Amino acid sequence: MDFGMKNRLSHIINPKTGKTVMLAVDHGYFQGPTTGLKDLRKTVTPLIPHTDCLFITRGMVRNCIDPGSDVAICLRVSGGPSILGELSNEDITTSMEEAIRLNASGVGMSIFVGAKNEDRTITNLGRLVNEAERYGMPVLAVTAVGKEMGREARYLALACRMAAEIGAHFVKTYYCEDFYKVVEGCPIPIVMAGGKKIPERDALQMTENAIKEGASGVDMGRNIFQSDNPVGMIKAIRAIVHKGASVDEAFEIYSKK
Ligand code: R5P
C-alpha cells in the first residue's frame, strides 16, 4: 500500500485505536428525504465533532457540509434506482476526479450478492478499485444480500470475502449471529452498519458485540440520527468503539442530555 492510500485510510480508521466511527448519512441517494435527514445540515452539524468520517454523497457534501470542517469524507459513488425500483440495478455515479476534488478520504459503493445484477455490481467494484488504486483512494464495499437470503453469517461472509477478493480496502456489513465468522473469513477491516432504528441500549449492545467479535468500527446512520439524543448516542458509540466502554457506561453517556 503506498503513502497516499495509507494516509487517506488513516483519516478514516484512527491508527491509534485501529477503529472508526463513521456516520452514514447517504440514505437519500435512493430513499429521498428520509426521517432524520430531511434537513441534513441541521442533523449532521452537531454530530461532526464526534465523527471520524461521514459516508455521504457528493451533492450533500457540496450543499450541507462546512468545508472548514476537518471530518473525513467517504463518498458514496454508486446509485441509480430509487426505493421504488430494483435496488441492485446500480452503477457508478461519481467520478474519481470528483472524489479527489472534494478531498475525499475514500469512496464507497454497494455490491448486491445473491440478488439481481449481482455480477454487474461486482464487476463495477472491480472497475472502481482499478481506478482508485491509480490515485491511492481507499474503496469501501457496502454489502447487500438478496432479500430471500437473510442477514446470516454465511451470506454476509460470502459478500465480505468477495469484496476483499475483488480488491476493496474495507467493507461495511450488518451485524448477525456468529458475526465473528464473517470477520474470520475477511482479511480487510469490517465496519458495522446499524440497520433500522432499534432501542438505544440494543444498538449499543450490538456495537459492543461487533467490536468484541472483531469489527473495526461502525458506519452507522439511523440508530444515531433517529435517536431522541443523537449527540449522546454518537458519543456513546464512540466510547465503545474507541475506548472499550461497556454497554452500561455507554448508556449513561447517551442518557446525559
Ligand atoms: C445503505 O445502503 C446505506 O448506505 C447506509 O449507509 C447504511 O445502511 C448504514 O446506515 P444505517 O446504519 O442506517 O443502516
How are the secondary structure elements laid out?
Blueprint: H1 3-12, E1 20-24, H2 28-31, H3 40-44, E2 53-56, H4 58-64, E3 72-76, E4 78-79, E5 91-92, H5 96-101, E6 106-113, H6 118-135, E7 139-145, H7 153-166, E8 170-174, H8 179-184, E9 190-193, H9 200-212, E10 217-220, H10 222-225, H11 230-243, H12 247-255
Parallel strand pairs: 1-2, 1-10, 2-3, 3-6, 6-7, 7-8, 8-9, 9-10
Antiparallel strand pairs: 4-5
The structure holds ribose-5-phosphate (R5P).
In short:
The protein is α/β, with parallel strands linked by helices and 257 residues long. It has 12 helices and 10 strands. Helix 9 (200-212) packs antiparallel against helix 12.
Structure in words:
- By secondary structure, the protein is of the alpha/beta class.
- It has helices at 3-12, 28-31, 40-44, 58-64, 96-101, 118-135, 153-166, 179-184, 200-212, 222-225, 230-243, 247-255; strands at residues 20-24, 53-56, 72-76, 78-79, 91-92, 106-113, 139-145, 170-174, 190-193, 217-220.
- Strand 6, helix 6 (118-135) and strand 7 (139-145) form a beta-alpha-beta unit.
- The termini are far apart.
- Ribose-5-phosphate binds next to strand 10 and helix 10.
- Ribose-5-phosphate (R5P) binds next to strand 10 and helix 10.
Low-confidence residue ranges: none
Coarse shape: globular
* Strand coverage percent: 15-25%
Sheet/helix structural class: alpha/beta
How would you spell out the order of helices and strands?
HEHHEHEEEHEHEHEHEHEHHH
Q: Give the bound compounds.
A: ribose-5-phosphate
The whole-angstrom Rg is: 17 Å
Quaternary structure = single chain
Number of strands: 10
Major sheet characteristics:
8 strands, parallel, barrel
